[in-house]
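Sequence in, structure out. Go.
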Amino acid sequence: MDKFINFMEKHFIPHASKIGNQRHLIAIRDAFTVTMPLMILGALAVMLNNLSLSIPAFGKFMNGIFGGDSWTGFGGAVWNGTFGVLSVFIAFLVAYNLAHHYGKDPVGAGVVSVASFFTLGAATSGMNSTGLFVALIVGIIVAEVFTRLVGNEKLVIKMPDGVPPAVARSFASLFPAMITVSIFGLIAAIIAGFGVKDMFAEFYALVQEPFMGLANSYGSALLIAFITPFLWFFGLHGANMIDPFMQAINAPAIEANANALAAGKAAPYIVNKPFVDSFVNMGGTGVTIGLIIAIYLVGRKNKPFMVVNNLAAAPGIFNINEPLMFGLPLVLNPIMFIPFILTPMICISTAYFATSFGWVPAATVMPPWVTPPIIGGFLATQSFSGAILAAVNLVISIVMYVPFVSLATRQELKKVSEA
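Output:
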């Protein structure tokens, strides 16, 4: 194990750290972090409107109070203000974050990015999650182009002394903004020249939908379950590093699932963020809620474990496991390496096949990631079978961690007796 750790620290960690610090990925991750409350609210609004499908009595109750189905207008209005314009937010925020990284005008870059996004025709069909990939591309390109043009002295209109700074800044970015938006206008004209009437719909069908389908496979789910704890084992925040990838498929998958279920069809996408959060990341990366319970069951004689465990139990209920990561620790802990890596892979396997066999509904609602285990499974699937599946995975995690906690406890007692 020591040779393996030394090898990984020498050959793998430096490259992984570079990827984790890559400015474009950080900009995407931070953009989705800002929009997370909106996505949670939008998902809850969709759940409220669709609750009458799974619980007809609820629909009758609400119709009786409001004298019809006008109450569903609330959910529709909230969806319009969240998922309905999600791509617009992302186009702004990605450009904003990148420009901020370069030390240039972030607000100007964000505004130009939104203008460029609409120049491509977003007003027709691209404002919701359908245009998410295009929004990411536009935000990155605008930030790269705009920040370079803003730094060109030949494009700056110099204002006389006494002009307010805000006015001077707007004129300084006048030509860079015009050039950047014009580039996307030219792109839109070229695409239209090839007979493409709706670029966003075409891009979704040709690129985004196949990518989501590829990411929805069991192999990709297994890879997600592996790579996150694997990176964490070496002290790298695995969840943050793969978050840009997860978020790119997350909102479209949730929306497609909700629309399919509302139409009485099967949900097309199993793998999304609420699926992973509710059935795999219980207690945090590595299904560490099982480790906390295992320590209480068989590790009570291990005083160092118990001290950390007592501190980690409360945060662990809300899926925060940094006290375990660095206090136990799990980072570079050779004894815990096997259960920490394998437990999420087993849990995602049971969840994936339980969903694919139709035993559990697909996740269509995104509860806050701090939602306690089992409750999250119920909310994400709007089904008690989701809660049962989460409980099964919880038991699996406990069983996986118990023998390794026992081993660590025996080693600690041996060390104490020798001392």
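Check: The mean pLDDT is 83. Residues 384-418 form the longest helix (35 residues).
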